[in-house]
Fold:
Amino acid sequence: MPLTPPSSPLGTVLDEDQLTSLNAHLQRLWDGSPLEPAMERATDARRAFRRDGDYRNAVVQAAMFAEIVLTSTLSLMLWEEQLEAPSVEQAVVVFDFSRGGGLATRVKTEYAPRLGGDWNRTLPGPVHDWTHAVAALRNRVVQAATARRTRRPKPPSQRQRTWPSPARRMAASQRLP
Structure:
C-alpha cells in the first residue's frame, strides 16, 4: 500500500529517497513488525534518561524494550516450529500468565531448549545481567512508585507526638516576653 505525501510543506521537504525510507518504516510499523515498537521504547528510554533526566521512566521503557524483544523472538521461534500445522493452543501454553510465569519464567524454560546454551539467571552472563540490571531494577522502580501512591498520611489521632529536645525547651524558656 503506497503512501502519498500530505498536501503540506512536508511534501517539499522530503526528497524521493527520504519518502521511500519513510514509506518503508511506516509499512513495517503497520505490518506489525516487532522491531518497530521495540525501537520506539529504546528511543523513549534514551530520551527520558539523557534529555529529561527521568530515570524512572527510562528504566521502565528499557525494560519494555527488553520484554518486547524477548517475547517477539520467542513468538517468532514458535511460529517457525509450527509452519506445517500452526496451532494457537501451543502458543497459549507458552504465553499463558495463569500458569504462574511471566517473562522471567519464559526465559528460563523456553529459550534453552530452542536455542541451546546456558539460560540460568543465577550464573554470570547476559541472562544474569538482564535479570539484575533490567528486570529487578524495573520491579524496584515500579514497586516504589506504587508504594508512594498508596501511602496515606495517618490521621492526627494516630500520629506520634514529637516532643522538643531539651535544648529547644531550655532556649524557649529563656526567650524574652
In short: The CA atoms of residues 82 and 90 lie 9 Å apart.
